[in-house]
## 1
Amino acid sequence: MSEHTNADPEVLTDHTDVICSTSIERIVTGRNAALQQTESLIHQLNDISTLTRSIGGKSALDWAMKQDFRCGCWLMEKPQAAMKAITRNLDRSIWRDLMKKSGMLALMDAQARDEWYNSLEKDDIPAVSEKNILSTFEQLHHSKGEVFERGVINVFKGLSWDFKSNSPCKFGKKIIVTGLVKYDRWGFGLNWGWQRDRLADLERMLVLLDGKPVPDNRADVTRRLSDHIHANQHSTRYKDEMFTIRYFRKGTAHISFKRPELVDKLNDIIVRHYLGMLACVN
């Protein structure tokens, strides 16, 4: 994908590289030390509970929790079950942080990000180790172009061909989407849902192709559009560097592209995936 963007993220490429200047060895060593100390603490709490029960003081679950606010705590459970859950929770958090720092999330569309986060909710997530970190991010590095291009194709395939402006061969000067906005007695509002995600994906792809940093999700086009609509309840038009968006009471939105050279790069990707459409695109 290097021919399309100068914004390649900082992803691991070999055994001497780091992810955003974070040492893999430090992560793994810290994780192992934390788990070792946690297991020791669980055993100590169990020993203390045995002592306090023997003198009529009940267990740590009774006297270590706030009054009338007793809740589950893995530190108070049996060591084998507790360490399994604690290890999984800790590793899940570390993987999320590594993925965020790697820059790979910026290349993923909403579907790919959901698949990644859902995979972390499973019980059999890989342990955080040097070997697993290296193999995971080397694989992600090699597939980053494919991941990005799949996102472009997913956005394209999500367009409705019921509108003449939406060409089944390419992104045109504008696209039309349904369900992006709503209208009621208070005026317009931006809907939550897959169309909102798709607009954010589209902006991120154009920004990457332009070689610029991807906006934080707190400042992406959907947030800016939402703020604009909130401040201008009866406005029907929004503009920024990438788009002009006209929206209508029935919920449809006309999204016009302001950077045709970037749209051409999107269409280059579509052509590679749908070579049979080459004549139509040209």
## 2
Amino acid sequence: MTTLTPTTATRADRSAARGSSGQLSLLVHQIRFEQLSFWRNPQSMVFTFVLPIVIIGIFGAVFSGGSGETFFFGLTGMQYYTPTIAAVSVLGACYGQLAIVLAMRRQQGILKRLHATPLPAWIYFAGLLVHCVVVSVVDVALVMGIGSLYGVTLPSAWGPVVLTLVLGAASFCALGVGVASLIKNSEAAPAVVQFIQFPLVFISGSYFPIHADVLNTIAGLLPVKPFNDAMLAPFAHDAGYQWKELAVLAAWGVIGALIAVRRFRWDPRPE
């Protein structure tokens, strides 16, 4: 049996410290790479940020100055739409864009070459997650800023908003990776992503309130409506943590992660 002397133990500690710092440096580098890749793609950048701004701007022009209405569950139009459009922007950045990007990188052989490098897989996906969270924060801040220009009061407690945003981003990233693992080629990626995203967005009340109890019950078991509700509560009702909705959201994140672990491929699928 090998006995560790104080000298060898110190060396082992130093090696572990160097290993930890090295992995942290790799993670920072990967995050920086994803950010540079995103900001140097003007078309992707513009559509990621401009679309939510245009939508909330149009809704602001239509619903500004209004009072609470039964149609919006006692809220004004802008009180309702500011958090829901913010939620849609997170969905697009973390689920839709990520699934398409991964499918394209796999088809182009980028993932296969990356997998052959010493970069650990968890660092690659952690870098993608942090990148998506950063983009989502910028998106949400823009939507909130425009909403405040139309008289929407910002939440007094930001803890529920931050937790909902981070958990939503992580869950939708996991679902994005899971869906990307099921897409056979990059040409089909946008169609597959939108085929899933559009129905979920509409039945979840993102663009107009849903008053049908049965539909609300069904949508409440899916990931988008719980995310909408958890974002809506601090804005509209000054409420706290929506644990039931967050639990549903986390469960879908686990499902997406399990699918990704079982089905994700680094190399292109054979035609």
## 3
Amino acid sequence: MLLEIRDIHVHYGKIAALKGITASVDQGEIVTLIGANGAGKTTTLKTVSGLRSLSAGGIVFDGRDISKMPGHKRVLAGIGQAPEGRGIFPGMTVEENLLMGAYARKDDSSKELAEAYELFPRLAERKSQMGGTMSGGEQQMLAIGRALMARPKVLLLDEPSMGLAPMLVQQIFTIIQEINRRGTTVLLVEQNAQQALQIAHRAYVLETGRVVKTAPAAELLDDPEVRAAYLGGGAAQGTAAPGASPGASRDGGPEAAPDTTASDSGPERGPEGGASK
């Protein structure tokens, strides 16, 4: 198993954000985490990448316990992340943003740069353009390309379709499948549960900091409870549907609702502009 999340607990002050999450991602898989706002999805990714500290439990990556490993060393170990809100550097060019993804590497990154431009031709066309002047879809491509520059064994993707037009959403999910086809394992957090389950191999359903269901993604697409709660079939009793207002977070935790008012028609917010969960 490439990534093992073992009964992890995470707190924001006195608030329990994760209450014993256990999950795994095997080499070559796309695994998705779905759930309502406040369920703990983004906190799980941040904990795997080292941005949040564990209160209890452990994380094993590629056979090594990384529970106490600093975040920058996890990047070198093979964990890459494209964060919610994209987090691009608005005052840097596209190419400079991409090269920042390889900052910690000591070897030549020209091969990865060429591959990023092959995967995202739009970035190649605009390599000298400032990141902050690009549209939301272009910034999402840039965030993913930057993460790939570190040659990750597993790519953590947090809400890659947020605020994008439907045509661009489909394009982003097609690119995720291509990245996986080329050999990169993917752990995906996505409010668009329908799209996520269509491309994933397996899925975990999170509620209030716990895993409440796990199965092959195709099975969850046909699960009546999952369809009712997350796939537009009407809210199941006691389960908040995706897109609920920020105050509807059931655990009262810090995971905020995504900004669904964003469009792909203009520049996105800067690195600190994305909502955190």
## 4
Amino acid sequence: MGTPLEPRTAQAEEVVDRLLEEYPDSTISLRYSSRLELLIAVILSAQCTDERVNSETEHLFEKYDGAEDYAEVDEEELAEDLNSITYYNSKAGYIKTSCQMIVDEHDGEVPDTMDELTELQGVGRKTANVVLQHGHDVVEGIVVDTHVQRISQRLGLTEEERPEAIEPELMEIVPDQHWQQFTHLLIDHGRATCTARNPDCADCVLADICPSEKGDAEVDLASGEAW
């Protein structure tokens, strides 16, 4: 069992420092060439791997050009274009409706505020944060996906269970200049080492400061269950 640093700000800073060294090229893995493509890719990524999304959007972004195209296409046709994506019927509806609102209310441009983005169908705070950070260079929060949630809990950075509650806690302890990168670092670490089912604690650069380290720890703080 690792021993977390106190206070939590010190733990968070050490986590960032070590992961920056471990993953120096960490960045968003979704592929896109415009703000609209980014928005659509992030909507599609809910409960779906980025790899699958990138495979699907490769042909999607060739077929559709601009919000008007998505707004005007028959929803069933759009759903068929997305049929290898989880919940593709619902996501087709989100994309079509959101693009119609972008055309009608934002002159065809993806909005650049949290309030306006979260008014779009299928866009919550997590999606809006990604679009703001990578589409508009506006960083006003931390994207809390499943990797960030799991690893933050395992490291003792938060005891909250919902992303909406985890984000403000992380914003209090993670240096604001690292808010954007923090997400990508934890995603990379979650994919490479700190996996959901069988984390490789023996080869983890954070093991000595992780209270969930399964060499001696009895409990996975992310699930609350015994190893």
